[in-house]
Amino acid sequence: MLEPSGVDVYMKDPGFEVDIRVDADVGALARVWAGHLVWAEAVRSRGIKLEGRMAIVQAFPGWLQLSHFARILQPAHAG
After folding, report:
1. Using CB atoms within 10 A of its CB, is residue 78 exposed (0-12), middle (13-18) or buried (19+)?
2. Degrees (nearest 5) of the Cα angle 22, 29, 39?
């Protein structure tokens, strides 16, 4: 559950209405978070799938902030 005050993960359905469902390969989600994979590519490759109202689905990528270390963790480019 995502709220302005923070995020909670439930092992059992807490009974709230679902606004958006995120199905993600944990590796793809981690690579996006670390800045190694752009959001659009993760979605195109089906590593991340979203279901829900269009306005929420479109807003979701803006809610996922990059790791504070994302710039540091960028892979080195062969030169």
Report:
1. exposed
2. 85
